Amino acid sequence: KGLGFDHHRLLQLADVVMYSSDVLFEKDKAIRIPGKKFVAENGVWAEDFQKIKATARYDFHQPGEVVLGYYGAVSNILDWKLIDELATLSGVRLVFIGPKADFANADTKDKFIMERVLGRENVSHIPYAKYSDLPKYSAHFDAALVPFKVNDITNPVSPLKLFEYMAAGLTIFATDTTTLKQYKDTVIVADSGELANKVRSWLGDGSKKNHDYTLVLKKSDWKNKFKRPIDTLLKTKSEHHKFVVKNVDIINVNFYDYTGKVIYKGGAERYVFDLAQMLIKMGHHPRILQNASHDFKRVYRGVEIIGVRTGVSDASGRSLRQMSKVFNEVCENADLIIASPLDLACEIANAPIVGINHGIHWDTIRKNLASNRTSEYSEIFDALAAVKVGVCVDTNFINWTRTYDYKLGEKLKYVPNYYDKNEFKPSVKDFSGRLKIMYPRRLYDARGIYLTLEAFDYLLGKYDNINLLLVGQTDDKNVKKSVSNLMKKYKNQVTLEEFDMQDMHKAYGKSNAVLIPTRYAEGTSLSCLEAMATNNAIIATNIGGLPNLVIDHYNGLLIEPDVQSLIDAVEGIASDRELAGILARNGLEVAKAFEKTNWDMRWKKILEEEL
Question: What is the SS3 assignment for 319?
Fold first, then answer.
């Protein structure tokens, strides 16, 4: 869906549209395109492949063998059943030049046959070759192959290799795709069942006649092929677009875990993913970069995730400054960098920066006057100096910044967190029966998991009409053990589940009350907003940006971050179910101010200004 949208949009923006085959041209015939349209099939710099001196280094012949050569992606778009049959022909050596590749809808049978073929003694595979070496290899081919499977993917393809084989003067065997059939007068084209017989007949023909490609090569010469579209483009004064695709790098600490294997499902990860999707819809090219133990690349629902080895390991503690230095080099081609968190901007100098503050993460239970030093905020202050704009999910950070430097505070814009009303919809809740209380967050100390487990060890023992639903991830062995112990102790009252990012809306239909029992380092919680939007009574601590969302005793209960306060709040709504219902109803009204459409509008304005 996303690629189709991009395709149509680019057709409307282009001054000149060039198609590499007639088949592709015909597919777009019904679309109104304001620019000029041309079919410009692939071509060749013929001189690169002609009069090449054959040298032994590039020769794979064994005595008495005929070499059938192919170069390009060694992948599932090739007809491996046909190739397997060709490999059994007496006196034939197959030479493949190119990397193995997996395209969409790969057939496991094809993979099996491919590996079997490549492992044969009369088959040679060179995974990589420079373009300048291809003519030297092809000088040793006796014939060349274009053995595509025939399907909707290959039918429109005008293969570059076809014209290069021609320039090298090779006999060419090709399967009968829609495009390749157009060359049947000069190329041996047949369906896969017949093509092997064509090769057999050719092998038995001692003359090995050369084919005359003069007319095709003249037409396919790059110098002639693009003259008309380029002349048109140079004469065109673009009036229907001013759009330029920009590269936007979103740098953050983690999206996947440190090894790139497990995807995190927290609010910060959802935030940068939604931001990337917005940039794609705007027509730009975003990447999400993260700290990692080794370089990797993943694609999550259409968004590139790039793991960057920064030299900072989880075991040694996080150094956002070190990460920032490495990201600065990796992102040197970016038109805009979005730093999430903002601190990662502290060493960025290669591009304009928008920073995001997700909350005061240095708010911890270890803070005290004796250990407090202004120097520990150097990354934050350097980042504030570097960014053009700082987006803040709560007013807490804005006020904190002003107490140090009012001028820096003027760079900051309040864009609160959000929920998607199309996903998180209110459902009818029964507040008179069993009280089902959900904790929908990552299970770790900062988010109040130990506080929750201790409080509910008391509550579940006292009340048999209360359930605790834990929905979140953890990789902490101590947390896992504590949760497991509570589940064993109260088998029918405690559950633990995980939901993928796109499925979190399903979780909130199971509860009628939700805990946001943060102990420290909180912004404006997505979980809190999603819970309000789905008709849940809220119990939240008065930490970070949560007071921006919850008005005590109106749309939730704001409590101190301690066990007794949590027990008192749960007992309060357990004994007064009418209050629980009122808090939930009022929460529905407050949540409307935080709908994603408002977030989209604010962020889009910022991005358009900076891009």
Answer: coil
